[in-house]
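Key result, reporting period 2: structure in, sequence out.
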């Protein structure tokens, strides 16, 4: 019998869900800024298979401490995210910290999906399965 997912009907456009594009040498300042802004979640267009530059880690740690959903997508056209690399900022390390890996969606689509999930009070575990 096919699995039918419950319809998510609510959309709260006032939720603060920024979309950030990563780049090599990126400082952590943008993440530090957002950690003080009371955001509800974040989508990051990461490098390659879902990696972040080590230079951004200090700010990323501030976001992680808020325990909000952080979704990773690849900046690469038709790219996938995978917890492959274990260096500081690598996808493996980010997965261990609770980042949600989203394949098949670009940044704007992942942001919309996260916004709808949060509008319907889904927690991080539920978001990870939709």
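The corresponding designed sequence is given below.
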């Amino acid at each position: 019998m096919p699995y039918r997912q419950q319809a998510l009907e609510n959309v709260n456009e006032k939720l603060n869900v920024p979309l950030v594009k990563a780049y090599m040498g990126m400082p952590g300042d943008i993440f530090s800024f957002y950690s003080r802004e009371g955001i509800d979640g974040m989508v990051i267009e990461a490098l390659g298979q879902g990696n972040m530059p080590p230079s951004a880690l200090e700010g990323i740690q501030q976001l992680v401490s808020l325990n909000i959903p952080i979704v990773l997508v690849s900046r690469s056209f038709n790219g996938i995210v995978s917890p492959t690399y274990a260096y500081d900022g690598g996808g493996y390390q980010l997965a261990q910290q609770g980042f949600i890996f989203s394949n098949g969606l670009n940044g704007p689509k992942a942001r919309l999906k996260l916004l709808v999930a949060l509008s319907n009070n889904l927690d991080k575990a539920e978001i990870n399965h939709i």
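The longest strand covers residues 42-46. The mean pLDDT is 90. This case is discussed further under Risks and Mitigation.
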